[in-house]
Design brief:
- Among the domains are: 2-165 and 1017-1182, 3-Layer(aba) Sandwich (Rossmann fold); 505-667, Alpha-Beta Plaits (2-Layer Sandwich).
- It is 70% helix and 10% strand.
- It has a six-stranded antiparallel beta sheet. Strands 8-21-22-3-23-24 form a six-stranded mixed beta sheet.
- Helix 5 packs antiparallel against helix 14 and helix 5 (168-501) runs antiparallel to helix 15.
- The longest helix has 334 residues, at 168-501.
- It is flat.
Amino acid sequence: MYLKRLELKGFKSFPVKTDIIFKEGITAIVGPNGSGKSNISDAVRWVLGEQSIKSLRGDKLEDVIFAGTDTKKPMNYCEVALTIDNSENQLELDFTEVTIRRRAYRNGESEFFLNNKSCRLKDIKEVFLDTGIGKDGYSIIEQGKVDEILSNNPLSRRKVFDEACGISKYRYKKQEAERNLSNTKENLERIDDVYIEIENQLKPLFNQQTKAKKYLEISEKLKTLEVNSFIREIEGIEKELSEVNEHRKVIEKELNEKEEQKNVVEKKQEDINKEVEVLQDVIEKSVDYINSIKGVISKKESQINLIKERIRNFTNEISRKNLEIKDIKEKLNENKQYIKELESNKLSGSEELSTLQENIKVLESSKDKQKIKLESLNNEIELLKESIIDILNKKQEFSNKLSTLNANKENMNIRDENINSEITELNKNIEIKSSELDTINKEFNMQNENLKNVNNRHKELSINLQDSISEHNKLEDEIQKSKYNLNGYNSKLNVYIDMENHYEGFNRGVKEVLKNKNLKGVHGALGQIINVPEKYEKSIEAALGAYMQNIITDNEFSAKSAINYLKQNNLGRVTFLPLNIIKSNKISLGNLKANTKFIGIASDLITFDEKYRNIIENILGRTILINNIDEGIKFAKETGHRFKIVTLDGEILNPGGSLTGGSLKTNGNILSRKRYINEYTEKISNIKNEISHLELKRESLDKDVKNIKNEIDSHESKIKDLEKSIIIKSTSIKNVESEIESLKGSITKLENEKNDLNSNLNYTLEKSDDVRKDMEELDDLYNKNKEKIDALNEEIKRYNDLYDKEKSEFDELNLSLVKKTEVYNSIVRDIKRISGENCELEEKNKQLEESLNYEEHEIIKLQDSILTEEKEKENLTKQLGDSNRNLETRKIAKDDLKNSFDEINKELKTIDRQHIELKESLFKVGGRLERLKTSQDTYINKLFEQYDMTLVQALEIKDEDLDIDRKFLESLKREIRSLGNINIDSIKEYEEIKERYDFYSEQKQDLEESMEEIEKLIHTLEENMKSEFEIKFEEISKNFKYVYKRLFGGGCGELTILDKENLLESDILITAQPPGKKMKNLNLLSGGEKALTAISILFAILITKPTPFCILDEIEAPLDDANIFRFGEFLKDLSKETQFISVTHRRGTMEAADYIYGVTMQEKAISKVISLKLKEAQEITDII
């Protein structure tokens, strides 16, 4: 078995469908960083069921779908298919090729296919169990897996070793069994809860039903006495009701007469009231008019006072403004005089400033020329000083170099003599070691041949043992699975048998008739005597409806006998179908069969005993079955709504056009129970036969396993002795070879060193002469620069004196200019300020004069307004006096009408009092009547509430001669009260609970037995796991020691189980001792040593249990060239049993490969796979 083909479409950087064909042996996949070569190993991991997107270097599922580029649209789904050659049938599938396919969409949906058939992830995991293939196996090894093996997380390490030791399939089966055990425990807990609850109910219900029976007996006696007592009370009340009604009629007549008298008086009172209202309206309007006149007068007085106040204000304002105008004119004259003085001072100051500014410009120009000349001279001196410093530094450097060169020349001469003597000594040692190596090699080859022969036989035996154990475990699994299924079917069968025996789904009356075997002529319920095909169960149940509860009898006499039984025991109502009376009522098919929607007549689609034909055709002979409701509606229209039509989903179209549908409640599986009982009985029989056959095969295998184990033990002892001897020889060979290589390397190094010494000596002599010449040239240059600096310093001193003198004169003139300028600016500011102030004063004076004219004019107008207002006030005062006199006359007329109203009101109160007295008498009579009626209704209600009887029904049991003893009546009531709370339903409930109690007792026992079987299975699986793990781990540990020494060229590696008492959960300790070093903690190893140690473990696992194919994703990246060479050689050995696909960029791995694929990214973010030769692959990896 090997990986034959990988197809990618839309996965990560592979938007175009890409097929990669793999052959047996080693295939290398190479390419620059970022080209997408690791996406190939990701694709394999993903298709095998990897659920963690982070492990695939993403955050969410859509990250594995091609995201698009600037030129290519993103894809909506991705798909990866992995094809495995299964021609040797290592996978338990009847296919020579097995293709696993996984597809994912952007909406988060994902689906799996096995040979193009949809399946679950669980199915794929089960296919590859115990093969090493899978996301948790060791068929895909990347850098992370290497780190995982050496990490401090024991769970990660255990997963790899469990898969390698072949116990992951047992662990999977154990987990399945534990889930089944958990489910069974949950079911048992639920049944226990119900069982305890029912058990707790039984005893109280027994006591309750005893009390209920006694209560019914006493209640019947009490009913007869109380009903007659109620009748006598009702008859006495009726007589008294007649007398009270006569008295009521007399009172009602007197009341009517008083109401007529009251109406006449109320009419008079109403007329007077209207006259008063008219007068009152006139008075209110007069008062309003008077108040309005008063208001106007008040407003006039306020207006006159306001005008006078305004005249006073205007007079005061005119006096104030005249004074202010006088002050402004005086201020203007003073300012004009002051401005004339300032203008004169401004003119003289301007002339002085001009003279100073001319003198300053002349001095400044001369001073700037001196400054520029000084700066130029100083710059020239600085450049010369820097040149001198450089010359001195270079002289010191040359002097140091000359000393160093002389010292090196002496040392090289001494070292050359020492090298010659060392080379002679090393050549002698190489001759001695080569002779020793030839002798050891001969002995090693002889022992290796012996070990190979013994190993081959041991391998054959191990394969035979593994096959036998595997076959044994499969048989054990099949036996346990069959037993588990047997328990399940037994449990289901018992449930349906119990439902059948207890008539589950039938009404109480039907159950009671069917249970009573003393009733003659009863055949059974209609739902029991028919057999319905499974596909028609829902439609036939809907068609029958309540008819399923009908009971078939021989004749009407049998039915009558059953009805009497139900009535006597108060057990409910049932419909009976006498065989001798009911006739067939089946429709004629005619042209119905030609209709494509027609399935058949309901009575023709079921089976039953021929003697029941008339009843079946009477009930179902006019019912037609149709596929669905749409076809049913069409069919009903075509046939004129004449037939009852039922669809396969249970919808009903009744004759006449009405439809019935919706959710259909099942009746306890009445129609399907018999079918289930027959099916489960047949399955149970088949499973029992299968278990017997499997147990015989298991016994035979047990004997074979025992014989093979004995032979394996014998061979393992021989192998250990040979291996021990070979390891010693191998170590000796490697040590001698290492010593020879080391000696040759030392000679080469010494010869190279000698050649280098000669070259360096010649170079040193030439260099010394050059340095001496350079030093002489530097001395000449230094003296010339010194003379130039002295001359320049003399010239700078002369220019500095002249510059200082001119600068002093310039500063004095500048200070005088500042002072004169400040005085001049102050005069200009004063002139501007006073001119502005004059403008403001003139504007203000103008405004004041205009305001005075306006205010004098306003005073004249206000004086005229006062005269007008005074005249209007006088006229209003006169009108007010006339209105007050008219108001007094109307008030006197209103008082006269009020007196008349009071007299009539006294008469009306007398009539009202008499009317109320009559009403109270009528109310009392009415109350009496209501009380009597209420009392009568109370007795009638008591009849209905206590005994569910109307008065008419009560009169039927009236007994005129019955002696009603109240004391006896009370004693019966006390006796009922002493019984306490009564539960009449407890009689029926007790019988039903007792049946349930017996049923759940059986279910509880079945589940307990099932739990015991599952626990035995789990124990067996654990024992098998321990045995397998112990054998395989020992083999892996042994292979690890061998691989470690070979890959490291020596050293020692060990695997140890830390807790041997807990083999299945214990952590595994990895210890490593590289050659020439002490045993170290893994954390102290270098990166390369860690990687090689993890690779040694993985290779040891592959030797012990080869996986069909193995994908290596740059696991050798941390290794140096020497280790890469050993890694490649070992890979070649392993490729005889395992196909390797290595994602790499190391030349040593490529050289070991049989086939090479290159991954390039010619277009941004799109990977392409090409087949390469070794040279082309190396060119690609050189880009990295």
